[in-house]
């Protein structure tokens, strides 16, 4: 199998970053002057320059700070998982008692703006370059996509519709403004409007995924832009319910884009869902946007979720363990449960051996199984698994948005408009081996979204926030299965509280604190109550 990875050599990354990055972290919003011997005067000349600039857009995608662990620390607040290991700043976040100085949370906000800066440089310079027009269109489309995609994450994580407002909107027009001059929009809906504008521009410029050769897989494409427009409208509808209709429109645009989007469904639910979460299917019809990964680099989430120390065979990190609440959410006969979660006694393949799951480390008695396929074979290390356990990537592209989520976005948007969402919802249920639902309710949708997307970047925590369910859900403790002998997969267990009930204030905790370093450098206001 050919893995297509957009790799930047150290020389390429250094040269490009001289043009695309700032002089110091204190000027993270606006100091865009080039440094060193490379400058805007001698860089933006050739097709190679433009391609290097577009490649730089993806560098942070593979960084630990964003889609390795970064944003997952926030997703960890949900009722689906517990931290797994004692870590004060992460535990404080899960308990909603942060102060903005937590080390694990300082980089996501700034790194998203770093990508936005790089996109703005491309949008400012590439239009005037004398290069192939098709290449120019693609690179501009990539820049619009990555600017919108990065803004999407900071907008819904840190912005709201009035209490705090949105987050700074940085475009070509204002990217050179003085650092302290940026302001927060009155509402995050202004961010959503800019994100949609960027993603629409991207969709107009980008090719469909199926036209890419192996060397370019991993680049932004039309379906990714259309799908994130749909998801942005879904989030926007939290404040303006007319946006549900727009969400449906763009879900249909993904389906009808010409790229052949469809669920992986051969009427073998257990195998379909298992292979779906593996490198064997990562470029298939269901994967819309993911973190391009390999045994050499990419998202470390696969190893982060592995048993701490990997039963003595690999340096798993032991974070993000499923709760009993998530396990019990699955219906009997749902093929997704065994693929998603390992419980004591479950068989799995691990470096050429058949093992039965047990853990002397898991706080919950469970482990996420979705990301373990590449650990199966005896020769996996160096082939499908990174040789460096301190960078535990695998050949599997960690998913950020799948076609199944597009279907569930459509179902939710239809139901919230008082229409029938059965058709898209039941496509997802059928793949899981479950009977269809008639006249599905919003509660049916909430259930389906939870079990289909568990342990993924789909963001269960923000779902609970935008649905208005977080305060009630988080007022309940979380449970695990505590076995009498953690070394014995057949030992009896009792259901016990592993995380106490939490106080979630919907007027404060619906957004996260902006890192204090960013507040100080940009002059914007901190989110209230943090």
UniProtKB/TrEMBL annotation:
Ranges of residues in domain RagB/SusD: 286-530
Domain SusD-like N-terminal residues, every copy: 97-234
Entry's Gene Ontology cellular component terms: cell outer membrane
InterPro entries per UniProt: SusD-like_N, SusD_RagB_dom, TPR-like_helical_dom_sf
Gene3D superfamilies listed in its UniProt record: 1.25.40.390
Annotated keywords: Cell outer membrane, Membrane, Signal
Superkingdom per UniProt: Bacteria
Subcellular location: Cell outer membrane
Family: Belongs to the SusD family.
Protein name: RagB/SusD family nutrient uptake outer membrane protein
Species per Swiss-Prot/TrEMBL record: Seonamhaeicola algicola
């Amino acid at each position: 199998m050919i893995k297509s990875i957009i790799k930047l050599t150290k020389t390429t990354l250094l040269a490009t970053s001289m043009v695309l990055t700032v002089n110091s972290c204190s000027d993270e919003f606006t100091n865009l002057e080039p440094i060193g011997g490379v400058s805007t005067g001698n860089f933006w000349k050739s097709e190679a320059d433009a391609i290097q600039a577009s490649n730089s857009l993806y560098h942070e995608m593979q960084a630990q700070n964003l889609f390795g662990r970064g944003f997952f620390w926030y997703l960890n607040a949900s009722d689906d998982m517990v931290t797994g290991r004692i870590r004060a700043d992460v535990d404080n976040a899960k308990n909603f008692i942060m102060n903005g100085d937590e080390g694990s949370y300082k980089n996501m906000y700034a790194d998203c703006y770093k990508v936005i800066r790089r996109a703005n440089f491309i949008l400012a310079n590439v239009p005037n370059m004398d290069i192939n027009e098709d290449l120019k269109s693609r690179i501009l489309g990539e820049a619009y996509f990555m600017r919108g995609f990065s803004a999407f994450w900071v907008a819904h994580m840190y912005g709201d519709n009035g209490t705090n407002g949105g987050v700074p909107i940085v475009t070509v027009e204002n990217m050179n403004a003085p650092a302290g001059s940026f302001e927060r929009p009155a509402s995050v809906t202004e961010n959503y409007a800019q994100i949609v504008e960027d993603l629409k521009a991207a969709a107009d410029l980008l090719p469909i995924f199926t036209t890419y050769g192996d060397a370019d897989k991993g680049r932004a494409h039309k379906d990714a832009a259309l799908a994130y427009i749909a998801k942005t409208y879904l989030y926007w509808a939290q404040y303006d319910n007319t946006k549900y209709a727009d969400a449906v429109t763009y879900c249909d645009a993904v389906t009808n884009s010409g790229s052949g989007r469809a669920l992986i469904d051969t009427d073998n639910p257990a195998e379909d869902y298992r292979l779906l979460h593996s490198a064997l299917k990562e470029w298939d019809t269901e994967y819309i946007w993911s973190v391009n990964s390999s045994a050499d680099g990419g998202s470390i989430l696969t190893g982060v979720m592995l048993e701490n120390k990997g039963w003595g065979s690999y340096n798993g990190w032991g974070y993000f363990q499923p709760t009993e609440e998530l396990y019990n959410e699955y219906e009997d006969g749902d093929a997704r449960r065994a693929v998603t979660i390992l419980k004591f006694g479950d068989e799995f393949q691990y470096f050429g051996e058949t093992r039965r799951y047990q853990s002397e480390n898991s706080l919950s008695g469970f482990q996420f199984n979705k990301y373990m396929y590449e650990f199966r074979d005896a020769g996996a290390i160096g082939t499908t698994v990174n040789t460096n356990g301190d960078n535990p990537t695998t050949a599997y592209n960690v998913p950020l948005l799948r076609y199944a989520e597009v279907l569930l976005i459509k179902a939710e948007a239809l139901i919230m408009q008082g229409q029938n969402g059965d058709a898209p919802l039941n496509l997802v249920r059928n793949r899981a081996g479950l009977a269809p639902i008639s006249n599905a309710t919003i509660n049916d949708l909430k259930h389906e979204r939870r079990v289909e997307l568990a342990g993924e970047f789909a963001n269960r925590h923000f779902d609970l926030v935008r649905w208005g369910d977080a305060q009630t859900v988080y007022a309940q403790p979380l449970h695990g299965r505590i076995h009498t002998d953690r070394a014995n997969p057949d030992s009896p267990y009792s259901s016990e509280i592993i995380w106490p009930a939490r106080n979630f204030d919907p007027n404060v905790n619906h957004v996260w604190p902006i890192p204090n370093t960013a507040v100080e450098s940009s002059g914007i206001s901190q989110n209230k109550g943090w």
